[in-house]
């Protein structure tokens, strides 16, 4: 079963001139309509360091957020036109993304964002369940008071997004919460494994408003277990949360595919 098309989102970055837009409008490039948004992501990630790092995180975030969808072709020329930088860092960033299975080589067309099957999504979640359980256990063992406070702040942000009916804000706050747990685990190798495993998945968990309240409750339960330094409980709750997220992802994906 092919993975459904991803929904595109809007943001407000700086402009790209008209001639550049027209140069990107070739069939299959998939970038003409999102050139401004990609520029915004590039600017947002400018703190990352080198141009290679900035391009890498720009494309990775665009894939993760559904700004560029499965089946979209990415070429050095298109990205050079949109981002106004040389091809060398673009080439290195694309190769790095290919090594992480976020892109695939496409004959004579640069790279393509792969279409994940439902079985592949399930495999990713099966690995994610183990990793999230372990990272929650480690966080419960090592989290400082400051890190625990950051988790609580993320949950409060999720609740505000829920009250506003803001699915994107809720997704961002959820990512912030999980990132706080990863940092609290004090295990960099584990953090890298989570990033590599989950990076290619589109974000479907919060497309259904009925998922908002249960997801927040699950996050709060994980937070309380970590705050109590109850490692077995934190691990169990994180694994249950991952299983529930898979169910929500699968339901949402089937709806989008209709």
Explain the overall architecture.
Helix content is 65%, strand content 2%. The model is unreliable at 1-28 (pLDDT under 50). The protein starts with 17 loop residues before the first helix and ends with a helix. The longest helix has 26 residues, at 231-256. It folds into two domains: 18-112, Winged helix-like DNA-binding domain superfamily/Winged helix DNA-binding domain (Arc Repressor Mutant, subunit A, Orthogonal Bundle), CATH 1.10.10.10; 118-256, Four Helix Bundle (Hemerythrin (Met), subunit A) (Up-down Bundle), CATH 1.20.120.530. With 258 residues, the protein is mostly helical. β2 (104-105) and β3 (111-112) form a beta hairpin. α2 packs across α3. The relative contact order is 0.12. A three-stranded antiparallel beta sheet has the order 1-3-2.
Short description:
With 258 residues, the protein is an all-alpha fold. It is 65% helix and 2% strand. The protein has eleven helices and three strands.
């Amino acid at each position: 079963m092919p993975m459904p098309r991803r929904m595109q989102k809007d943001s407000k970055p700086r402009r790209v001139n008209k001639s550049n837009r027209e140069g990107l409008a070739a069939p299959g490039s998939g970038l003409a309509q999102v050139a401004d948004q990609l520029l915004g992501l590039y600017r947002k990630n400018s703190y990352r360091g080198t141009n290679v790092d900035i391009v890498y995180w720009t494309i990775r975030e665009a894939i993760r957020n559904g700004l560029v969808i499965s089946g979209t072709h990415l070429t050095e020329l298109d990205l050079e036109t949109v981002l106004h930088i040389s091809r060398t860092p673009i080439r290195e960033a694309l190769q790095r993304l290919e090594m992480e299975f976020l892109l695939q080589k496409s004959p004579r067309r640069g790279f393509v964002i792969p279409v994940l099957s439902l079985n592949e999504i399930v495999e990713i979640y099966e690995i994610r369940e183990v990793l999230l359980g372990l990272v929650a256990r480690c966080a419960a063992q090592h989290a400082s008071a400051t890190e625990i406070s950051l988790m609580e702040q993320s949950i409060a942000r999720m609740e505000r997004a829920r009250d506003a009916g803001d699915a994107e804000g809720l997704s961002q706050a959820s990512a912030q919460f999980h990132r706080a747990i990863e940092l609290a685990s004090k295990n960099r190798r584990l953090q890298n494994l989570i990033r590599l495993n989950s990076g290619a998945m589109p974000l479907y968990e919060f497309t259904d408003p009925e998922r908002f309240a249960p997801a927040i409750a699950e996050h709060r339960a994980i937070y309380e277990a970590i705050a109590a330094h109850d490692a077995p409980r934190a691990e169990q709750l994180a694994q249950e949360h991952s299983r529930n997220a898979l169910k929500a992802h699968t339901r949402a994906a089937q709806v989008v595919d209709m």
